[in-house]
Specification:
Chain B: Residues 377-405, 409-437 form the 4Fe-4S ferredoxin-type domain. The complex is a heterodimer of chains A (444) and B (458). Chain A is of the alpha/beta class and 444 residues long. In chain A, 24% of the residues lie in helices and 26% in strands. In chain A, the strands form 7 sheets. A 5-stranded parallel sheet of chain A has the order 3-2-1-7-19. Chain B has a two-stranded antiparallel ribbon with strand order 1-2. Classes of the chains: A alpha/beta (444), B mainly alpha (458).
């Protein structure tokens, strides 16, 4: 069997590794236009910051691929013939597949502003994006503007500010990452932005990009008619699936490549997973197009089972939500669902340290008290413990009594379980909790 | 991508501010002043240069650390490490490495005093410390006192830098404080005081097999004789009981970190003065293969050598007498001086600060075996949160490719891990945590990630 995977991001690579274990004899080929080897996309920022070199963000050493007989092709797949089962590459060669996975990922959305094609205007998702950013900010950039108040926006802000550029962020919402973060969390992130001298303009969008005589951005005009001079402009308004190959092959597409629960596209033996895939059916509260590292990994693993054993295809199940991020020096972890605005039938208990950057929010059902979600900022919580609590619908009282079991902060860090429980008891006197478990030095 | 090297080479660097330049100039001036301190024929002037040099280097470094880290919000400050020549094997790093290596070569082989008490090229520097040595040790300075002073000063000054840089982490504050305390108290002041009271210069923080001769028959005999009935016996008791009882017990509860990154002087220098170089350790599988080959060989050699020396000393095999002494000398030369000193510290700016600890130290090998097989210590990975970014591997001074474990959701149980905790600190997603826990299920990974079982080390 020849398995051809288009894309060597986390989805394609997870699929390849899983398939290698399921089918030790299969021929597996990974095609990538972006890079010769798999690298960690969320780590691109650290190369720019100088924490690591490009070779340090490769999750596997270069020998790994040959030793596990994973063939790497560094080329762009330009054509797909689903009848003949062939993929055309831009280097002139043609790959014949038995099964094909499209894991082509996504690219940054550019919007349709006048001037968005100017020099010094770019998105930040791919390795070529990083190379462009590196070249374009090497000199002469004193002021930078970033459009978008999400994860890529704050990453770009950290990167540029670290190089001494004055950064302004234009954010459509009334607060940072308003679609995801509740107000208290966003306020804590705001503290970070302020501490690192990032200027934020909320409820403000980009209106126009102004060019200098060389065709490079020199300023932007905002929807509040403010003119901000800048020599570099980052568009961080989200990502969109790469559909070129799917369209060339005549697959059904919408926002992404349309797939069923087995991640199968409209063509036989052709599958799609990760950022580029769009689920035809999905559960309530979930998304049709998931563009996360973690979901990419899960979809890549799921689809490998289907690819390797078509008689019993696996259905993709999103499973429990979790995510993490870091906003400058502030870490964020979330387990379960914590909507930005309180949900009906749920209480939202939020503890925050009066001065330090530490916050813990637990959402739970008003009727059964079952926990439904957790947000922490500046604290680390144990994923496995929370997964078990959320899975079992453990009552918040039980969770708080054992909160120390989920504490994942390093040794000697200040422990907040006592004050958290005290505040809960004050806020919910009808559900008084006795703290049973703190974190110890000798136990886990 | 074809231009991995160019990419890093082209990333912009922030402008170095005037204040930073000024403070670094102070350090550079101090280093330059060491030249007249060494070579000026006028002894008095040379001594003044020496103290001015130490003052400028210390004040400059402390001021620079305060300026660089103290003013910024607390957090992980690894910006531009791979971009600056000094911390990315550039010209500055090579010069630093050559100077350090040169210093060790002179110290070990060209600074023994002649009949007139002349310490070779280091003579002026050694004698500049005479008053201080008289005060502390009640005897004139020598080349080892000079070295000890430099060493302790480096740990203290760069320790303060570490306290500032990592002030957001109580773990690093306490650990760095512990290293500074043990170096100053146990490895500098106490041995000096012992000399002042005409007792053997004994280091209570070094043990066999790192301080290999502490369990050699000659040293044991000398300690018992010169230490006097109470102190000498205690010294021998102390070194033996820690080596054979304390080490296994403490390592069982806390892993080898209790020694390697809390007490040991080699670790002390690596964690403080070596902190800017920690990312330079080689993470490749090839490096790991060499590490295993070399370090366990050193351990076997020192165990056999110690046993041979005792057999020889017992007189049971008279023929041994002629072999054991040269062997012990050869070990001291190759391992004690060449490996631990010249390569171990001289190569800091090129290979990272733990070259000796990782490839050569028999104590680390011994502690490592215990840590791997008889310990409650592990680094837990947090469920499925790893994003394979590589920050953990990057900062691992022991060259462990930490992310290989984290991205599979497996706990990190490695003989070489010194438990510095920096992987946990550098992780942007809160994935790694140093923990002591029950030995049952110690290797149990997270259920939330399905590990690929493809081999990494073999």
């Amino acid at each position: 069997m020849h398995l051809v995977l288009i894309g060597n991001g986390i989805t394609g690579v997870t699929c390849a590794l899983t398939a290698r274990q399921l089918q030790p004899e299969a021929r597996i080929t990974l095609v990538s236009a972006e890079s010769a080897h798999h690298f960690s996309r969320p780590a691109l920022m650290y190369v720019y910051l100088g924490h690591m070199r490009y070779q340090d963000i490769k999750p596997y050493e270069d020998w790994f691929w040959a030793e596990n007989r994973l063939e790497l092709v560094h080329a762009t797949a330009t054509g797909l013939d689903t009848d003949r089962k062939t993929v055309q590459l831009d280097n002139g060669s043609v790959l014949t597949y038995d099964k094909l996975l499209l894991a082509t990922g996504s690219r940054g959305r550019r919007g349709s502003w006048p001037g968005s094609e100017l020099a010094g205007v770019q998105t930040f998702v791919t390795l070529p994006d990083l190379e462009l950013l590196t070249r374009d900010t090497r000199q002469g950039v004193r002021e930078a503007v970033i459009v978008g108040g999400g994860l890529i926006g704050v990453e770009l802000a950290e990167m540029l500010a670290a190089k001494g550029m004055a950064v302004t962020m234009l954010i459509r919402d009334a607060r940072y990452w308003g679609a995801i973060l509740p107000a208290e969390e966003a306020a804590l992130v705001q503290r970070q932005l302020d501490a690192h001298h990032i200027v934020t303009r909320y409820e403000t969008e980009l209106k126009e990009i102004l060019a200098d005589e060389n065709g490079r951005v020199r300023a932007v005009r905002t929807t509040s008619d403010e003119k901000l001079p800048c020599q570099w402009l980052g568009l961080a308004i989200g990502v969109e699936p790469n559909l070129d190959l799917a369209k060339a092959g005549g697959l059904d597409t919408d926002k992404g490549v349309l797939v069923n629960e087995h991640l199968q596209t409209s063509a036989p033996e052709v599958y799609a997973a990760g950022d580029c895939a769009q689920l035809r059916e999905f559960a309530k509260g979930e998304l049709a197009v998931e563009q996360l590292w973690y979901t990419g990994r899960q979809q890549g693993e799921t689809v490998a089972y289907t690819l390797c054993n078509a008689t019993t295809p696996r259905s993709y199940r999103r499973g429990q939500w979790f995510n993490s991020a870091k906003f400058f020096d502030l870490e964020y972890q979330t387990y379960g669902r914590v909507p930005a605005e309180p949900a009906a039938g749920e209480h939202s208990f939020c503890w925050q340290h009066p001065t330090r950057d530490a916050l813990l929010r637990i959402n739970f059902r008003t009727d059964t008290l079952a926990v439904t979600g957790l947000n922490v900022l500046g604290l680390r919580q144990r994923h496995d413990t929370w997964a078990a609590w959320l899975q079992a619908g453990t009552p918040v009282t039980e969770v708080l009594a054992n909160l120390g079991a989920a504490n994942f902060d390093p040794e000697f860090f200040r422990q907040y379980e006592k004050v958290i429980v005290a505040q809960f008891n004050q806020q919910f006197p009808q559900h008084t909790v006795q703290l049973r478990r703190r974190k110890g030095l000798f136990s886990i | 991508m074809n231009s991995a090297q160019t990419l890093t080479a082209e990333v912009p660097l922030p402008e170095v501010a005037g204040t930073e330049k000024l403070l670094l100039t102070l350090v550079a001036l101090g280093l330059l002043l060491l030249l007249p301190a060494t070579f000026d024929a006028d002894a008095q002037r040379a001594h003044w240069c020496f103290f001015a040099a130490l003052g400028l280097i210390s004040v400059g470094t402390l001021g620079w650390a305060g300026w660089k880290y103290g003013r910024k919000p607390p957090g992980v400050h690894h910006h531009n490490l791979w971009l600056r020549a000094s911390t990315s094997r550039g010209a500055v790093a090579w010069i630093t490495g050559i100077v350090l290596t040169g210093f060790y070569v002179i110290l070990y082989w060209f600074s023994s005093p002649d009949d007139q008490g002349n310490y070779g090229p280091l003579n002026q520097l050694v004698h500049a410390l005479d008053p201080f040595s008289q005060w502390l040790r009640n005897k004139p300075s020598d080349q080892w006192f000079l070295y000890g002073t430099f060493y302790t000063l480096a740990i203290l000054v760069m320790g303060v830098r570490g306290l500032l840089k990592y002030r957001h982490s109580p773990y690093h504050l306490i650990r760095t404080g512990s290293l500074m305390f043990f170096q100053l108290g146990f490895a500098f002041l106490l041995p000096g005081l012992l000399l002042a009271f005409q007792r053997p210069e004994f280091y209570f923080s070094y043990f066999w097999p790192l301080k290999q001769d502490y369990l050699f028959p000659d040293t044991v005999g000398y300690l018992l004789k010169d230490g006097g009935p109470a102190l000498g016996v205690f010294m021998v008791f102390w070194t033996a009981v820690i080596s054979f009882v304390g080490v296994p017990m403490l390592t069982y509860f806390f892993g080898k970190r209790w020694y390697c990154s809390w007490v040991c002087g080699c670790g002390g220098l690596a964690e403080t003065a070596g902190d800017p170089y920690r990312h330079l350790s080689d993470k490749s599988r090839t490096a790991w293969k060499w590490e295993v080959r070399i370090i366990y060989t050193v351990l076997v050699v020192i165990v056999l050598l110690t046993a041979l020396l005792w057999v020889g000393a017992s007189g049971a095999v008279p023929a041994l007498q002629g072999i054991t002494q040269p062997l012990s000398k050869a070990y001291g030369f190759v391992i004690g001086a060449l490996f631990a000193g010249v390569i171990g510290v001289g190569f800091y700016p090129l290979m990272g600060a733990r070259v000796w600890c990782r490839f050569g130290c028999p104590m680390a090998a011994y502690l490592g075996l215990l840590q791997k097989h008889f310990s409650r210590f592990r680094i837990t990975t947090n469920g499925a949160q790893c994003i394979s970014c590589g920050n953990c591997s990057n900062v691992c001074e022991m060259g462990i490719d930490v992310k290989q474990y984290a991205q599979r959701g497996e706990p990190i149980i490695r003989a070489s891990c010194v438990g510095c905790g920096m992987c946990s600190t550098a992780c942007p997603r809160g994935v790694l945590n140093l923990e002591n826990g029950p030995r049952e299920g110690r290797y149990q990974g997270s259920q939330l990630i399905h590990a690929d079982s493809l081999r990494i080390l073999s």
